[in-house]
Amino acid sequence: MSANKLLVGTVCSLFLGTAPPVDADTARVHCHLHVKSPVMKRTNSAANCQFSQSQGNVHVVMNPGLPGGLQFVFPASKQNVTYQRFNDEAGIQFTTPELTLKVFWADPGTRHSF
User: Could you tell me the pTM of the whole model?
Assistant: First the structure.
Protein backbone atom coordinates (compact mmCIF):
# COMPACT_ATOMS: atom_id res chain seq x y z
CA MET A 1 0.00 0.00 0.00
CA SER A 2 1.44 3.39 -0.94
CA ALA A 3 2.08 6.04 1.68
CA ASN A 4 -0.45 8.35 0.00
CA LYS A 5 -3.22 5.72 0.08
CA LEU A 6 -2.46 5.00 3.74
CA LEU A 7 -2.47 8.71 4.61
CA VAL A 8 -5.75 9.36 2.74
CA GLY A 9 -7.36 6.32 4.37
CA THR A 10 -6.24 7.43 7.82
CA VAL A 11 -7.49 10.99 7.26
CA CYS A 12 -10.87 9.67 6.05
CA SER A 13 -11.06 7.41 9.08
CA LEU A 14 -10.24 10.18 11.55
CA PHE A 15 -12.32 13.01 10.13
CA LEU A 16 -15.19 11.28 8.35
CA GLY A 17 -15.62 8.28 10.62
CA THR A 18 -15.09 5.83 7.76
CA ALA A 19 -12.62 2.98 7.49
CA PRO A 20 -9.82 3.06 4.91
CA PRO A 21 -10.08 0.65 1.98
CA VAL A 22 -8.95 -2.88 2.87
CA ASP A 23 -8.01 -5.68 0.49
CA ALA A 24 -8.97 -9.27 1.33
CA ASP A 25 -6.21 -11.76 2.08
CA THR A 26 -6.74 -14.95 0.05
CA ALA A 27 -4.62 -18.10 0.20
CA ARG A 28 -4.68 -21.73 -0.83
CA VAL A 29 -4.59 -23.76 2.37
CA HIS A 30 -5.44 -27.20 3.76
CA CYS A 31 -8.49 -27.95 5.94
CA HIS A 32 -9.63 -30.68 8.27
CA LEU A 33 -13.34 -30.91 9.05
CA HIS A 34 -14.91 -32.68 12.03
CA VAL A 35 -18.71 -32.66 12.00
CA LYS A 36 -20.50 -33.52 15.23
CA SER A 37 -23.04 -35.78 13.54
CA PRO A 38 -23.72 -39.54 13.38
CA VAL A 39 -23.70 -39.37 9.55
CA MET A 40 -20.34 -37.73 8.84
CA LYS A 41 -17.68 -37.71 11.52
CA ARG A 42 -14.56 -36.18 9.91
CA THR A 43 -12.37 -36.00 6.88
CA ASN A 44 -9.63 -38.63 6.96
CA SER A 45 -7.03 -36.39 5.36
CA ALA A 46 -6.66 -32.68 4.91
CA ALA A 47 -8.58 -31.25 1.95
CA ASN A 48 -7.52 -28.45 -0.37
CA CYS A 49 -9.21 -25.20 0.61
CA GLN A 50 -9.32 -21.53 -0.23
CA PHE A 51 -9.15 -19.11 2.70
CA SER A 52 -10.16 -15.44 2.46
CA GLN A 53 -10.22 -12.86 5.21
CA SER A 54 -11.22 -9.21 5.10
CA GLN A 55 -11.59 -7.06 8.20
CA GLY A 56 -11.79 -10.19 10.34
CA ASN A 57 -14.57 -11.78 8.27
CA VAL A 58 -13.49 -15.25 7.11
CA HIS A 59 -14.71 -17.28 4.12
CA VAL A 60 -13.40 -20.83 3.58
CA VAL A 61 -14.19 -23.02 0.56
CA MET A 62 -13.34 -26.69 0.95
CA ASN A 63 -12.39 -28.35 -2.37
CA PRO A 64 -12.77 -25.13 -4.43
CA GLY A 65 -13.71 -25.69 -8.07
CA LEU A 66 -15.22 -29.12 -7.46
CA PRO A 67 -18.96 -29.82 -7.48
CA GLY A 68 -20.29 -29.95 -3.95
CA GLY A 69 -17.48 -27.85 -2.47
CA LEU A 70 -18.39 -26.81 1.06
CA GLN A 71 -18.41 -23.13 2.02
CA PHE A 72 -18.00 -21.77 5.52
CA VAL A 73 -18.51 -18.15 6.58
CA PHE A 74 -17.32 -16.82 9.92
CA PRO A 75 -18.32 -13.14 10.37
CA ALA A 76 -16.13 -11.18 12.81
CA SER A 77 -19.28 -9.85 14.50
CA LYS A 78 -20.33 -13.41 15.44
CA GLN A 79 -17.01 -14.47 16.99
CA ASN A 80 -17.60 -15.71 20.57
CA VAL A 81 -21.35 -15.62 19.82
CA THR A 82 -21.95 -18.42 17.29
CA TYR A 83 -18.37 -19.69 16.94
CA GLN A 84 -14.99 -19.71 18.68
CA ARG A 85 -11.75 -18.87 16.87
CA PHE A 86 -8.30 -20.09 17.90
CA ASN A 87 -5.25 -18.68 16.10
CA ASP A 88 -2.00 -20.66 15.96
CA GLU A 89 1.25 -20.39 14.01
CA ALA A 90 0.19 -23.44 11.99
CA GLY A 91 -3.32 -22.13 11.19
CA ILE A 92 -6.73 -21.24 12.60
CA GLN A 93 -9.43 -23.37 14.22
CA PHE A 94 -13.13 -22.46 14.05
CA THR A 95 -15.53 -24.29 16.38
CA THR A 96 -19.34 -24.17 16.37
CA PRO A 97 -21.81 -26.44 18.19
CA GLU A 98 -22.05 -28.49 14.94
CA LEU A 99 -18.46 -28.65 13.66
CA THR A 100 -14.78 -27.91 14.01
CA LEU A 101 -12.90 -26.61 10.97
CA LYS A 102 -9.12 -26.42 11.14
CA VAL A 103 -7.31 -24.36 8.51
CA PHE A 104 -3.63 -25.25 8.07
CA TRP A 105 -1.20 -22.93 6.26
CA ALA A 106 0.88 -25.99 5.20
CA ASP A 107 -0.22 -29.58 4.51
CA PRO A 108 -0.45 -31.30 7.92
CA GLY A 109 -0.42 -34.80 6.43
CA THR A 110 -2.15 -37.16 8.85
CA ARG A 111 -1.50 -34.88 11.83
CA HIS A 112 -4.68 -32.89 12.50
CA SER A 113 -3.62 -30.86 15.51
CA PHE A 114 -1.77 -27.61 15.95
Answer: 0.73
